Amino acid sequence: MDVLRVDDRLTDEERLVRDTVRAFAAEAVAPRVAEWFEQGTFPVRELAPELGKLGLLGMHLTGYGCAGTGAVAYGVACRELEAADSGLRSFVSVQGSLAMTAIHRYGSEEQKGEWLPRMAAGEALGCFGLTEPDRGSDPADMRTRARRDGSDWVLDGAKMWITNGSVADVAVVWARTDDGIRGFLVPKGTPGFTAGDVHRKMSLRASITSELVLDGVRVPGDAVLPGVKGLKGPLGCLTEARYGIVWGAVGAGRACYEAAVDYARTREQFGRPIGAFQLTQEKLAWMEVALGQAGLVALHIGRLKEEGGATPQQVSFGKLANVRAALDVAREARTVLGANGITLEYPVIRHMNNLESVLTYEGTQEIHLLTLGKAVTGLDAFR
Ligand code: TGC
Ligand code: FAD
Questions:
Q1: Which pLDDT score, from 0 to 100, does residue 243 have?
Q2: Spans of all domains in the chain
Q3: Among candidates 247, 314, 263, which has minimal Cα distance to 86?
Q4: Strand partners of residue 195
Q5: For the Acyl-CoA oxidase/dehydrogenase middle domain, which residue ranges apply (predicted)?
Q6: Relative to the CA of 98, which of 52, 264, 286, 328 has its CA 20 to 30 Å away?
Q7: In whole angstroms, what is the distance from residue 285 CA to residue 111 CA?
Q8: How far apart are CA 195 and CA 209, in angstroms?
Q9: Ligand 1 centroid, distance to 165 Cα (angstroms)
Q10: pLDDT for the residue numbered 214
């Protein structure tokens, strides 16, 4: 497998990251994740310090206890985490690429010093509240408001589908002010701030997803992130998290592909392994092609990032192409496993269901199509 040998292009340091994260995921997560998925739980307080020790939280950031690795090393880590489960990569993305990145990029020195070292260590957890119950793809039209009251800010509104929401020690909440959209740090336990979990999900079950309610939440004047005003603040963080998904999707697809190849080699029908039938080989060959291409796209965008920055449009390209490819691989792999493909005894349907969320969050497939459409025509078709 991996006919193109894309990983031969990694540096020694990047390969070390790959092997370390792969070993951690294989030992600490893979044997237990089907059970978490079935029960709809994620042992976040147990895993976060371990992920912190490995330097995976805010891995691409510098200072404040963060590892400061290159973009490709971070991407490779996301790939290996998501090969175990998209929920695991989601946790790391939200902690590092969203909550910590917002504080690192836009926070005051006091805010950085207070939160980042503990978040990098996995001792404090963060979440990122942008989406609202009635405003998902169009956050510019958000309803959550923050108004000045003396030297304080008072927040009212609701955020929906927030990963880590109920367990987070600090929520990065984006709200409309008289001065445009601003980010606020709202610590857990602030009066008027509550979080309740979303239940009955059939996707990302090994991940905590919550609704945040802000009812007259009073925070001090220095709770605002001073370094940014406007939607470019949260969107800048999204570009970081979307980049992690470009790689993560390759990991989820690879796990499905490997399960399909293993199964095809050993499962016999009509007196032969099903992998000996041309129709099965065609499925596996297309999976190989799709994942080889996705791996190259991830590596290319990662190197662009390291050479001075990938554009949001390039990251949209990668998120759109690679999640679509991984979902197609997962669906095809499921058919190879026949009836066994629908059970949690194999990883395929878990990944397949997870990828439905990955297709939707961090900008839906349609949002990234429209982003590329705008890039090639110069015409905005969002509104
Ligand atoms: P638009 O007028 O295009 O842009 C407003 C300002 O933002 C800048 N900008 C970006 N900056 C950085 N990165 C990007 N990707 C950016 N896209 C735009 C832009 O230059 C402008 O700056 P300025 O200085 O001129 O003010 O904004 P719009 O209202 O037309 O919206 C564009 C659109 C639709 C693409 C945007 O709203 C969008 O991306 N919508 C999708 C929302 C989304 O992705 N939500 C995700 C929530 S978080 C999440 O899902 C976490 S899942 C958990 C996990 O990651 O595992
Ligand atoms: P909508 O925006 O209502 O879209 C519904 C459909 O309409 C989609 O197919 C969409 O593509 C389509 N559509 C919308 N506008 C257009 C258009 N102009 N043209 C064509 N089609 C259009 N958000 C956070 O802020 N933080 C988180 O931590 C977070 N974690 C999440 C975890 C999970 C498991 C999930 C499922 C979601 C999470 N989200 C989070 C929310 C996620 O970002 C949103 O679900 C996503 O942005 C889409 O918003 P929506 O669900 O409201 O769909």
A1: 98
A2: 6-121, 126-228, 232-377
A3: 247
A4: 212
A5: 127-217
A6: 328
A7: 50
A8: 10
A9: 21
A10: 98
Ligand 1 atom 22, closest CA: 232
What was the pLDDT predicted at 297? 98
How confident is the prediction for the chain on average, in pLDDT?
Answer: 98
Q: Do domains 6-121 and 126-228 have the same CATH topology?
A: no
Position 85 scores a pLDDT of 98
* Cβ pair 151, 221 in contact under 8 A: yes
Paired sense of beta strands 126-129 and 170-177, if any: parallel
Q: So what's the architecture of 126-228 in CATH?
A: Beta Barrel (2.40)
Q: Which CATH architecture has domain 232-377?
A: Up-down Bundle (1.20)
CB-based contact 88:25 (threshold 8 Å): yes
**Which ligand sits nearest to residue 357's alpha carbon?**
2
Pocket test for ligand 2, best of 42, 95, 131, 320 (most atoms within 8 A of CB): 131
Task: Note if 110 is an active site residue.
Answer: no
Other CB atoms within a 10 A radius of the CB of residue 14 amount to 21
Average pLDDT over residues 114-136: 98
Q: Please tell us whether the domain made up of 6-121 is placed in CATH 3.30.365.10.
A: no
What is the C-alpha to C-alpha distance for residues 354 and 202, in angstroms, rounded to an integer?
8
Q: Is residue 1 scored above 80 in pLDDT?
A: no
